[in-house]
Every structure is written in C-alpha cells, then in structure tokens.
Amino acid sequence: MAPEGFKGVLGGDDPEVYLPISMRAVINPGWDGFDRPNVRWLNILGRLPANHDTASVHPLFSAIVRDHVEQAKITNQNVRQRIEKATLTLLPAASGLNELKRQWQEPLVVLLAMVSLLFLIACANLANLLLARGVNRNREISIRVSLGATRARIIRLLLMETAAITVTGAAIGAVLAPVLVDLLIRSIADDDGGSGWLDAKLSLPVLLFSMGLAGLSTLLAGLVPARQFFVAAQVAMSLVLLTVAGLFGRSLGNLLQFDPGFQARELALFSTSPKRAEFIAEVEQRLAALPGVKSVSYAEFGPLQNSTSSSNIQLEGYRAGEEENMDCNVMVVGPKYFETLGTALLSGRGGEVRDGAEAPKVAVVNQAFVKRFLKPGENVIGRHLSIGGGNVPLDIEIIGIATDTKHGSLRETVAPTFFLSYQQRMDNRRRLPQATFFVRSVRPVPATALRAVVNAADPLVPVYNIRMMEKAVDRSISTDRLIAGLSVGFGVLALLITAVGLYGVLSYLTRQRTKEFGIRMALGSSRQLSGPAGRLRRSCSALRGWIRWC
Fold it and tell me: Is there a contact between 130 and 174 (Cβ–Cβ < 8 Å)?
C-alpha cells in the first residue's frame, strides 16, 4: 500500500492502483510496446549513490541509443543522426516528470504579473485614501500635541491604527482565500469533480508571507504622499490590465471559433484494447443499432488524444534530398471515419468496408501532406507511397485528400499525415492495435450504454476514456479559458478599485474647495457647467424634455 498523498512522479496523474510493468500487455491486450523498439512510452527512474559522477552515465546512454537505432531498423540517415544526437537529462525525482509544468508555467507567470499589478493598484488606492485621511486629521494632531502628546506617542497611535487596518484586511483575506481557491480549482477540475494533479491548499508560510506583504504595503502607503502620481499610476495599470484581458479574451474567442477539422457536437468516443478482429466488427454493429446513432467508426488514435505515430515514407514522383526528413504522421482508421468525425474530403474518397485485408492497400492524405510534397497544380490521387526507406515497394495507393485535423491541440501546426485502413494495418501486426470508437448521434449516448455494448461483445475487454468530443475540445483550451477568465476578472476588479480611488480623491478635493465655490457663487458664478460639458448637459436636458412631450 502506497503512503497517503503519494501520486507518483508523473505530474497530472493521480493513480489509485499500481501494477507491475510486466502486466502492461495483460491490462491492454492490443498493446505491443514490448515488441516494438520504435514505440516511446517508458520513463526510467534510478537512485544514484552519494557523490556519484553523473557524467559516467552519458556513455552508457549513447550506447543504448545506438543499439535502439539498430533494433528499430531505421534506415533514414537524417532520422538516425537526429536520434543518435539525443542527450541524457537527469532530473531530480522530487520535482517529478511534470509535463504540466511546460503547459502551465507561462500562464502562471502571466497571472502572477497581473496579480502584482492589481496589488499595486490597490496599494496606490490605499495610499490616496490614507493620505486624505491624514490631511483631514491635521487639526486633531495639533490638538493632541498642544495637550502634551509626544511625537513618539502620536507615531505609535498612527501605527496602531494602521496595524488595525492591516489585521482586519488580512483576516478577511485569509477567510476568503480558501473559498476562492476552491472555486478556482473546481473550475479547472475534470468532470468527475477531482483535479488530483493540482494542489493549491493554503499553507501557513504562504499565508504569513501574504499577510506580511499586506502589512508592509499598508505602512508604506501611509508614508508616501505623492497623490497625483498614484492617481496616474492607478489609471495606467488599470489600462494595462484591461488591455491584457481584452487580448486574452480575443485569443480565446478565436480558439472557440477555430475549425479543428471535425464536428465535435454530438460525437462520443471511447477506447478499448481488442483481443480479436471479430470484436471490432461486433462492437461497430451493436453501436450502430443504438437509438439515435447516425454513424460509427473507429481508429487507433483519435483527435485531441495526445497520441501519435509517425514513420518515414517514400512517395511516387517525389525525389527526396539526401538528408531530407521524410517523416509523416500515421493514422490507422476504419471505414466511414471521415464521415463520422465530420471531416471534409476535398477530393477522392475515404476508406470503405471494401478496403479490407485482401484488397489493394490504400491511404488518404491531408492538406499538409499535399503542401509538403507536391507543387501547386499537381495531383496526388493515384500516386503510390511506401512506409520506410530503402528498397521498399510503393504499394499503397492514395485515394483521397482530407482537410487538416488538429490531433494534439487547437494551437498545433498540423503535420503531414496519411490515413491507412485499420483492417489492412492490423493484418501486418501480431497484435491488434488500440481501437478508439467514435459514435455520432442525434443526442448524447449514455456512457452506460457504451459500456454495455462492449461488455456484450467481450466482458474481458477494458473500456476507458469515455467522453464527448466537445468536452475534449474544452479541455484542450482549458489553459486559455482560465487565463482569459481570470484576466477579465482582474481587469474588472482593477477598474472598480481605480474608480473607487478616483471618487475618493475627487470627493476630497471637492470638499477642500467648498469655500472657493462659495466665493465664486457670491461673485455671481452660475451653477451650470460651461464649455463642452455644459453644452452636453443642456443637450441631455432638452432631450429629456422632448421625450416627456412625446
């Protein structure tokens, strides 16, 4: 039993059960990573002895890489050299193998900068309010001095009042912080309500640091009397936050309107590890018989699953350079794949049932493939390609061109990709590849119904990653959505703080000029505004009168 709170070294994972690595093929029957040296899936952990020289590990790593290249039978010299130049990076296990760090590091830095600006705006606002309060207490301070109060006692009094403000504000913040942090985590959390990988509990050091910073800022705000500077600084920083919020909001809007190359609405998907070819056909038929289902297909991997496969190719009519990288992404898909996903075919046709194991090998390529290997006006349909380099027959005919589809994230640059027939591809493997089923329906299909279909076909086949494609798209832009939402919130909050601060300053200045206004009125000045403001006010009054008359 693992200790409580232990989540392993992979950031983003929250495992509940640990199994021996030798059982990987048992848990996923269609998985054959042990037998394929070109599959990258393993993370190595090791405990080095004290005072161990890490430089001695690098020669061993280089030898392992060269052995890997030979086992994988990589013939492309460019690919071989790129792999052989790989370097070993040793990371401390305490920080984990955190892929989330790369995803969230820049957004968190941006959020930290925005929070800092908001904090400075609040400090400037507080400085103005305390300064106005201090000026109004000049008479009180003078009376205290005349009654015998020493400068030390007056300073102590002012510090105690400032400390009271600090403690009160910090206490309110300490109460609100856990609630707001919990709401923030829930907004990021998965559908099951647990974020697992995100630990943002309010710790005592963080709380003490925040309270100390709040106290220091309160003291400094009460000592600096540069009111006009603070007013200008508030407006400037608020404008910066609102501009940043607008840019993030616009970026999120562009992502939401971006075409990923497929129709996410009413599309469900789930993954399985089939043991036999008949299982796939049976599941497909049972899914198609469910009420409301319009189309069913399957593939080894699906869009936005962060799983890809690649291989170098040879293309009929294309002469590759001596060191040219001919790698392309490979997608293994079933019949009606493009129809089910809603991916448009620009030319030719997609895979069909007739493209089985005994039929001639076929492939569909995407737009990026055409742009990569063909000149404008050239036709790729009817050409042949082969997987691998060297003396390999060009035995796969290109039968169609599909629009580009985002497979990793909505921000990725689409790579040249070709789609192979699932039936033809699994005929060349000792084990069946993973199968991800796609179900398009007029209304969402319950997850229980999808599990029931798989269990009816084979109760020993696992079912995982059941979700709607719309949710997958939303998760792929979760970082952008979070940053946009928080930046808009910070911008609005900064605007409110600035408005309150400006109102306080203007109200104070107006009170200071009460005698001046009285003298001006005694000398015959009118209450009405003059200049453009006066004309605007008179125009509004005339408009209100006209509306009443109508």
Answer: no
Buried b (16+ CB within 10 A) or exposed e, 42-72: eeeeeeeeeeeeeeeeeeeeeeebeebbeee
Q: What is the pLDDT of residues 368-400, one digit of tens each?
A: 999 999 988 889 999 999 987 777 888 899 999
- Write down the residue that tokens 């129809």 correspond to: 339
Taking a C-beta distance cutoff of 8 angstroms, is the pair 21, 109 a contact?
A: no
Distance between CA atoms of residues 90 and 113, nearest Å: 31
Buried b vs exposed e over 311-348: b needs ≥16 C-beta within 10 Å?
A: bbbbbeebebeeeeebbbbbbbbbbbbbbbbbbeeeeb
Helix, coil or strand: residue 254: helix
Residues paired with 397 in a beta bridge: 362, 384
Three-state DSSP state, 260: coil
- DSSP per-residue codes, 137-201: THHHHHHHHHTT--HHHHHHHHHHHHHHHHHHHHHHHHHHHHHHHHHHHHHHS-TTS--SS----
Phi then psi dihedrals of residue 10, to 5 deg: -95, 110
pLDDT in tens, 257-299: 667 778 888 899 998 888 777 888 899 999 999 999 999 999 9
Mean predicted confidence (pLDDT) in 21-33: 71
Q: Round to whole Å and give the CA distance between 360 and 382.
A: 12
CB atoms within 10 A of CB 532: 8
- Alpha carbon 127 to its chain's center: 37
Name the pTM for this structure: 0.66
Q: Tell whether the torsion through CA atoms of 6, 11, 16 and 17 is positive or negative.
A: negative
Highest mean pLDDT range out of 59-68, 238-247, 359-368, 403-412?
359-368
pLDDT value of residue 278: 84
Higher per-residue pLDDT: 546 or 104: 104
CA distances from 385 to 113, 317, 347, 455 (A): 51, 9, 18, 39
Length of the chain: 550
Q: What DSSP line would sit under 79-130, residue for residue? A: HHHHHHT-------TTT-B-HHHHHHHHHHHHHHHHHHHHHHHHHHHHHHHH
Three-class DSSP category at 49: coil
Report the percent of the chain where pLDDT is more than 70. 78
Give the CA dihedral 178, 184, 187, 193, nearest 10 degrees: -30
Mean pLDDT computed over 11-39: 71
Cβ contacts of 45 within 8 Å, gap of 6 or more: 9, 93
Condensed to tens digits (0 to 9), the pLDDT of residues 216-232 reads: 766 665 555 446 566 67
Token pair 């737009």: residue: 367
